[in-house]
Design brief:
single chain, 65 residues, mainly alpha, 0% strand, rod-shaped
Amino acid sequence: MSQKTSTLGSMLALLRRLLARDERGATAIEYAMIAAGIGAAVATTVWSVGSTLKTNFYDRLASMF
């Protein structure tokens, strides 16, 4: 009888673990979305500043020669 009790207890423990809310995956996705947003903002800024620098420096330098 004790083996049935321990098996039942381990099955109930497994069921509790499966039904427990685990939000680690959701948190990882949220952090990934934040990182993607920051990356997009940095890329846009670098692209914009790079175009401005090209216009201001390289084109003026090229027009001198």
